[in-house]
């Protein structure tokens, strides 16, 4: 067994990770919830503004703890232990939080990731917080755990870093002219003219990228997102630069999925953020689930009946601390939730052949996640009435294609919602739609403060996308789903997006 020099941390690579290991996008030092980003641009505020810092840290903290509760492992870039207060606040001081953090490190729940560094305490060439550096050096010195790189051979790691992490960002910029206006309109809540203008701006970005041999996100920010002459790390986003917010979100999303794709694990996109479908990866094949036909998908969902809780639970992210999450993960309820999630993901194709299996396994994930929530409520304890999160979870199955989303909500009366329209670019062509299984609160306006778990489950093959899409909606209604008007917005829930595969 090889150890990281000067520590008791075991060297591991992606094949050593658990199946549901995630990279949480919320820890990216540029991640900003959409609502806060809009406010920053309107008011001319930066990431250094105290008000922005407070709101953003709270959002990051909620998403970080939710990731640790929902996933088997959370991969964390070493830099975030040194410069992200939402992370280092747990081990900066003594007490329960520090012990909980050490325990999660020792159990390889929190996995430090090294980019090119050889050690966990190597001198930094990125921005850090002195208190974070001191605390990290202290905690690493008396803790054991696991430490991840793409490869522990420096030459191979350098090659993989270029191929898996650096080049995909530039490639994404080069394909922006192919983005579909209808999908842009839905993803960014634009009118038809706004989507047309954004498409024109994407073409400009692509031309710029084609002239650059190498493109980093910081280079992109300086050109299209931040105030000229400013440090991208300061987050002084320039509202005079056309579509700075939209371009930033697309860049951040691509940046955020690169590492989990390289590791063949899950990117965890936060609430109030662009979903991965905004990257319009029409030909992306996910590493699971081969592809179901429309007939198989309808057969799997027909006449499903889930038993849901009838009273709201007083549980959420308000008042949640790392120690609560650690205790919850140590319960029988959490182990049963983890096993049920793995069962759901293990052989999705079998559920197409035996719909009852989907009912049983979907119900198991729901029941066991609710049981975890109930135990978590015990650990957090009684809160003031104005802080209580009244959470009434439902099961949601959604199908995502370019330009449109079909959502099936299972509660008192199973319902179907349709948002957007199939994009013209794939209307007459074959495509793949991603199926997502979620346990979410009924009131999605409270999503950023509520517990939820969501995962990409399988794909559905569409032979002629628009015709199949219309037929699918009709057949689901015939199967007993009542169609209701959607609010016009796509779902924005924290999701384990299935890792990408190179297979066709």
Notable traits:
five-stranded mixed sheet, 504 residues, single chain, 18 helices, 44% helix, globular, six-stranded mixed sheet, alpha/beta
Query: What is the makeup of the main sheet?
Result: 6 strands, mixed
Strand content: 15-25%
Poorly predicted parts: 285-289
- Helix fraction by DSSP (H/I, runs of at least 4): 40-55%
Rough outline: globular
In spatial order, strands of the major sheet run 14-13-10-11-12-15
Terminal CA distance: 36 Å
Number of helices: 18
Q: Quick one: how many beta strands?
A: 17
Walk me through the topology:
Elements: E1 8-12, E2 21-24, H1 34-43, H2 50-70, E3 73-77, H3 78-83, H4 85-92, H5 96-106, E4 110-113, H6 130-141, E5 144-148, H7 154-174, H8 181-187, H9 192-210, H10 217-224, H11 244-263, E6 266-269, E7 285-286, H12 294-301, E8 313-314, H13 322-329, H14 332-346, H15 348-353, H16 355-380, E9 390-391, E10 393-401, E11 404-410, E12 415-420, H17 424-427, E13 431-441, E14 453-462, H18 465-478, E15 482-483, E16 495-496, E17 500-501
Parallel strand pairs: 1-5, 2-3, 2-6, 3-4, 12-15
Antiparallel strand pairs: 6-16, 7-17, 8-9, 10-11, 10-13, 11-12, 13-14
């Amino acid at each position: 067994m090889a150890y990281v020099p000067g520590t008791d941390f075991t060297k591991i690579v992606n094949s050593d990770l658990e199946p549901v290991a995630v990279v949480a996008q919320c820890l990216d030092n540029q991640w900003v919830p959409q609502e806060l980003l809009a406010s920053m641009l309107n008011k001319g505020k930066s990431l250094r503004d105290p008000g922005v810092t407070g709101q953003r840290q709270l959002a990051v903290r909620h998403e970080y703890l939710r990731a640790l509760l929902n996933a088997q492992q959370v991969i964390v870039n070493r830099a975030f232990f040194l410069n992200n207060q939402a992370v280092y606040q747990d081990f900066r001081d003594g007490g329960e939080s520090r012990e909980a953090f050490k325990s999660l490190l020792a159990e390889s729940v929190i996995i430090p990731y090294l980019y090119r560094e050889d050690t966990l305490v190597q001198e930094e060439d990125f921005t850090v917080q002195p208190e974070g550096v001191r605390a990290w050096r202290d905690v690493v010195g008396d803790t054991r755990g696991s430490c991840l790189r793409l490869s522990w051979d420096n030459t191979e790691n350098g090659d993989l870093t270029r191929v898996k992490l650096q080049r995909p960002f530039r490639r994404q910029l080069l394909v922006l002219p192919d983005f579909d206006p209808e999908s842009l309109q839905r993803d960014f809540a634009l009118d038809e003219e706004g989507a047309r203008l954004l498409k024109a701006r994407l073409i400009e970005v692509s031309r710029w990228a084609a002239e650059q041999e190498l493109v980093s996100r910081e280079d992109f920010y300086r050109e299209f997102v931040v105030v000229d002459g400013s440090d991208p790390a300061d987050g002084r986003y320039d509202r005079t630069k056309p579509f700075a917010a939209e371009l930033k979100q697309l860049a951040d999303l691509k940046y955020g999925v690169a590492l989990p794709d390289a590791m063949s694990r899950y990117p965890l996109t936060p609430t109030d953020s662009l979903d991965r479908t905004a990257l319009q990866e029409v030909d992306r094949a996910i590493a699971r689930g081969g592809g179901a036909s429309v007939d198989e998908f309808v057969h799997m969902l027909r006449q499903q009946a889930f038993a849901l809780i009838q009273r709201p639970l007083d549980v959420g992210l308000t008042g949640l601390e790392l120690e609560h999450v650690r205790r919850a993960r140590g319960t029988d309820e959490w182990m049963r939730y983890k096993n049920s999630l793995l069962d759901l993901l293990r052989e999705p194709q079998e559920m197409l052949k035996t719909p009852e299996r989907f009912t049983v396994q979907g119900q198991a994930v729901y029941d066991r996640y609710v049981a975890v929530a109930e135990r978590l409520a015990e650990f957090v304890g009684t809160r003031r009435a104005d802080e209580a999160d009244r959470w009434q979870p439902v099961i949601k199955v959604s199908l995502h294609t370019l330009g449109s989303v079909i959502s099936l909500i299972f509660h008192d009366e199973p319902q179907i919602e349709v948002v957007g329209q199939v994009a013209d670019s794939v209307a007459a062509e074959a495509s793949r739609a991603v199926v997502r299984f979620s346990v979410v609160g009924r009131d999605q306006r409270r999503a950023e403060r509520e517990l939820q778990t969501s995962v990409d489950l399988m794909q559905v093959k569409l032979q002629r996308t628009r015709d199949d899409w219309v037929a699918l909606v009709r057949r689901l209604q015939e199967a007993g789903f009542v169609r209701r008007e959607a609010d016009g917005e796509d779902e924005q829930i924290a999701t384990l997006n299935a890792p990408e595969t190179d297979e066709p």
